[in-house]
Specification:
By secondary structure, the protein is an alpha/beta fold. It is built from seven helices and nine strands, in the order βαβββααβαββαβαβα. The strands form two sheets. Strands 3-2-1-4-5-6-9 form a seven-stranded parallel sheet, sandwiched between helices. A two-stranded parallel ribbon has the order 7-8. The protein is globular, with a radius of gyration of 16 Å. The relative contact order is 0.14.
C-alpha cells in the first residue's frame, strides 16, 4: 500500500462516495482531495485541501499522487452561463490533470459521458469530448474514461432536469437501443471506479454503462 490518489469533485455526489471507496480499498496510503470547501472526512488517510481553482500556482505543488480522479462538474443552471460551466467542467479539470501529470501522476480516471465528442453538436457532449481528448494528450501511462449515463443521487441542490430525466429514462431504457442511457446510482459508479482503479491490473481505455455495471459485485 504505497500508492497515493488525488481527486477533484470530492464534494459532489459521486466524488464523496469515491473518496470513501478509495480509502476503504486498502490500495492507497493517502487520498488527497482538492475542493472549494472541506467535507470533513474522518479517515486519517484523507488529506483535504481547500483551494481556489483559478490559482493553480498556489496548489499545484501540493499534488502528490500516482492516480488522479476527475469528478468535478456543474450544471448550466448552477453555473449561470456556458462559459462558466466550461470553466468548471473543462478548464479546472484540465488544469488539475496537467499539474498532476507534471507532478508525476501516472494514471487518470475521468467521468465522461456516452456520446462525448469534440464534434458533438450539443454543448455538453462537445465539452466532455474536448476534455477527453485533451487529457489523452497529457502523456499519462493510463487514461480511463468512465461513460455512465444519468447519475442518480440525493443532492442538496435538487436538479429538476435530472429528476425528470430519471423518471423518463428509467422506463424508456428497457428498450435495448436505449440501455446505455439508463441511470446509475452515484455510489454504484464510485464503487465501480474504485474497483477498476484498484483491482484491475490493466484497465480498459473506456467503460460504458454495461462495462461499469459488470465490474460491480452482484447485488450492488
Amino acid at each position: 500500500m504505497n500508492r497515493k490518489a488525488a481527486i477533484i469533485g470530492s464534494t459532489g455526489a459521486t466524488g464523496q462516495h469515491l473518496v470513501t471507496e478509495l480509502y476503504d480499498s486498502g490500495a492507497y496510503e493517502k487520498v488527497q482531495t482538492f475542493s472549494r470547501r472541506l467535507v470533513g472526512y474522518t479517515s486519517a488517510l484523507v488529506e483535504e485541501h481547500v483551494i481556489d481553482f483559478d490559482r493553480p500556482e498556489e496548489w499545484a505543488n501540493l499534488i502528490v499522487a500516482d492516480d488522479i480522479f476527475l469528478c468535478l462538474g456543474t450544471t448550466l443552471k448552477t453555473a449561470g452561463s456556458k462559459a462558466a460551466q466550461y470553466k468548471v467542467d473543462f478548464e479546472y479539470q484540465y488544469t488539475f490533470a496537467r499539474c498532476a501529470r507534471e507532478a508525476g501522476a501516472k494514471r487518470i480516471f475521468v467521468i465522461s459521458s456516452p456520446g462525448a465528442s469534440p464534434k458533438a453538436r450539443g454543448f455538453y457532449l462537445r465539452m466532455k469530448g474536448e476534455l477527453d481528448e485533451a487529457v489523452k494528450k497529457l502523456g499519462f501511462e493510463t487514461t480511463v474514461l468512465m461513460k455512465p449515463s444519468l447519475i442518480r443521487a440525493r443532492r442538496a441542490d435538487e436538479r429538476l432536469g435530472e429528476v425528470l430525466g430519471d423518471r423518463l429514462l428509467t422506463p424508456l431504457c428497457r428498450l435495448p437501443i436505449l440501455r446505455r442511457y439508463r441511470p446509475i446510482n452515484a455510489h454504484e459508479l464510485a464503487g465501480a471506479i474504485a474497483i477498476i482503479a484498484t483491482q484491475i491490473e490493466t484497465p480498459a481505455a473506456e467503460y460504458v454503462l454495461d462495462d461499469i455495471q459488470s465490474v460491480l459485485p452482484e447485488g450492488d
